[in-house]
Amino acid sequence: MIKQFDLKRFLPVNCKVEYGDNGQIYLLCSKEGGKLEVTGEPGTLGGVEWKDAKYIVFDAVNHEDWVMGVTLEFWRKGNKGDEPNISVTLGLLPGVKTRLSFPLEALNSQKMFLDRTPGKLKTVLFGNKVAIDEIDRFAIGVMKCFSEQKLEISNFHLSQNEPDYPLPDIKLVDEMGQYAIKEWPSKTKSINELKVYLKEESAKPDDAIFSDNRSHYGGWKEKKFESTGYFRTQYDGERWWLVDPEGYAFQSIGLDCVNPGVSGRVDGIKKLYKWLPDENGEYKEAWRKEGKLEFFDFGIANLIRVFGEKWWSEWAKITRRRLIEWGFNTIGNWSSLEFIRYAKLPYVWQLNNFPDTTKKVFRDFPDVFSPEYQKKANEFAKQLEDFVDDPYMIGYFLRNEPQWAFIQDLNIAEELLENEEDLFSKEILIEFLSKRYGGDIKEFNRAWNVSLQSFECLKKGIRRASKLSKAAEKDLTDFSRMMIKAYVEIPSVACKRVDPYHMNLGMRYAFISNENLLAGCENFDVFSINCYKINPFEDVESIGRLTNMPVMIGEFHFGALDRGLPATGLRGVTTQEERGKAYRYYMENGVSSKYFVGAHYFTLNDQAVLGRFDGENFQIGCVDICHKPYAEFIHGVIETNRVLYEVADGRRKGYNQPPHEIPKVGF
Predict the structure, then answer these.
(1) Model-level pTM?
(2) Under 8 Å CB-to-CB from 162, ≥6 apart: which residues?
(3) Most-buried pick from 15, 54, 279, 356 (CB within 10 A)?
């Protein structure tokens, strides 16, 4: 059953509204973003019955030249503020009429990144759970941008069934994987041009080595410590350093995702490509399947076009030379292990399959006090057996950006108490509370402002328990810290048993949403975060002061719209030259903190025009899909990487000119 929204009930906020002849509505939104918002009784918002509905569905057209972030916002009854309880952003390609849908079951917030559908890019959900019968305000709009934006909406309704996803007959991607409907400087005009360029690159000498004042590993010969044969940390009385296996001071200047290309999703959207080859023919190594999902890698296809069966070795030769010429001394996360073994350069490694449990507490947070978690941690650690003797390995990351940690001020023990599953961790929580209150349920009831018959009644679950009283909030916060410590400590101890030589580089949290995320950090050798800021100094300083540990940044990037992709990524600037300035400003301010020991740029390659696995299509690479470096950006990279040790040691002032930033086109 389809229930059409009455859009005339919605009020415009920061936008003007125009109506089309065929039921379309146009939102003309300001730079601050804009939306249509409706308030009313839960269950009948927008003039429709929400009961039994499974999906919000609408057709949309982005009338700009860049990716648009379409937003759906939901407010729980009683929330009178501007900030919704849940906000969802859906990526919309320029100029392509696309059917978008949102599954209402996702309001339970158990998933942060929702599945792609044909034509749609990335979908991200922010906030904590909201029940449909609690929602008394709802909005549809666009996220803020560097420019005014125009969004067309039609067929806006609730449905019990997932819709189909029709697409127009247009070609958006050319035979080399470039954006077909846009022109820009350095765009490769033909396959012949591609061949000439890459053969010239291949002909260059492949004997690149670090400069004279650098060690074999890319360390700094002007500062020497004790050598151990492995990478380690050192505080010299002034600041933190890494120390390379020869004993030289080391800052990890890295590049993530050093791979021959980047796969793009093609299932459901093949009609948008000018060319896709046979899956079993000459280009079979560019194809990949994961269940029903299909991927094609134009980066690999372009190498095959030029070098045939020798495509990988030619790419590896070119790329190793480039990394050294650009001043990178670390191969970062998610890079080809084959390339790592070939290149003989320092690297970090992302461990796979972080220990999980059949039953979860919330999102991807496991039942950490269960025997299953300990067993999985022991299995997880075994993968380090293949790396124990490798001096080029700086260390390993336990995992990357846990999804549960994205929620600001999340109280994971509160989520545990609300969860009605039979969990070992809940048994430990009940024991913890019983012990804290001396086994006296009456004392507990007074403190928590509840009326339970026994502590065992806590197994049934309590919603939003931290709001019951200050005592409840403190108790749950304290137990949250215990849970997070176990989450970190159990796999960390298992890993050190297998590999006592390499550094534990931590969790790569997306950000520190509250100080409980620091629990268990004593198990790390280096604390890691991903920091998408223009200047990381304050974040590094804050974490360093709280932990008294060295800090490594696992990801950062900057993109611009002056080349071949319609999204900037998580930090946007105006041009490639400004990207170079942004890199300089970021790295030289970061290394000015005494806690900073390295940062890894994300990534070597641009992302696919129509999106990688999750829909990201950011212009963030050092090279484009045809393996051409962005010269202006790389100039900034080289300038900074050449002087970074002198800035770290205080011999040289850091670059202090901020780039020309614009609001991000990406999420």
Answers:
(1) 0.97
(2) 54, 55, 101, 103
(3) 15
